[in-house]
Structures are given as C-alpha cells and as structure tokens.
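User: Design a sequence. Structure:
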C-alpha cells in the first residue's frame, strides 16, 4: 500500500511538472504571437498611412488634370498675357515720350 501511495504521489508530481512545462511553453508561444501581432499591426499602420498619402496625392493630381480646371487655368493665363502685352505697350509709349534729358532744377 505504501508503494502504491508512493507511486500515486510520484505520478501526481510528474503530472504537475509536465503541466507546468507545457504551461510555460504555451505562455512563451502566446508572448511570441503577441509580439508578431504587434509588429504586423505596426506594419499595417505604416501601410495605411502610405496608402492615405498616395490617395491624397492622386486626388490633387486628378483635380489638376480636370478639364474644367485646365480650361480655367488656360483662360487665366491668357488674360494675364493680354494684360501684360497692354502694359508693355503703355511702357513703350511712356519711354518714347521721355527724351532722356534731365535739366538741372533752379533754386529760388
């Protein structure tokens, strides 16, 4: 009977050691999985940020290439060109009016 109690006691202790080892292995496994999950989450956040940035750039370029926007810019550029040509003519007229001489001013 003492032998069977001893064998039972040894069996319980062995089961406890095996269970403790398995729990430690599972705990290490869970920690490693959490670490990999955190790395994946970080990579996913970086990917989301890059995707959002590319999406914004694409929208800006798309708006710039929009036919209505291009027409508006074309008209604005043409108006500025016409205005600049008119100002250039006015300056040319004023330069021709000026004879280039600067007589001294007499004091009183």
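Assistant: Done.
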């Amino acid at each position: 009977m003492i032998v069977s109690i001893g064998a039972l006691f040894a069996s319980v202790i062995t089961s406890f050691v095996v269970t403790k080892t398995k729990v430690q292995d599972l705990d290490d496994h869970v920690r490693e999985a959490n670490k990999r999950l955190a790395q994946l989450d970080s990579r996913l956040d970086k990917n989301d940020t890059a995707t959002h940035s590319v999406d914004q750039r694409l929208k800006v370029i798309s708006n710039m290439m929009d036919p209505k926007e291009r027409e508006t810019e074309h008209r604005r550029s043409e108006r500025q060109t016409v205005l600049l040509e008119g100002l250039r003519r006015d300056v040319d007229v004023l330069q021709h009016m000026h004879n280039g001489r600067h007589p001294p001013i007499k004091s009183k």
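The chain is about 85% helix and 0% strand. The chain has two domains: 1-65, 67-97.
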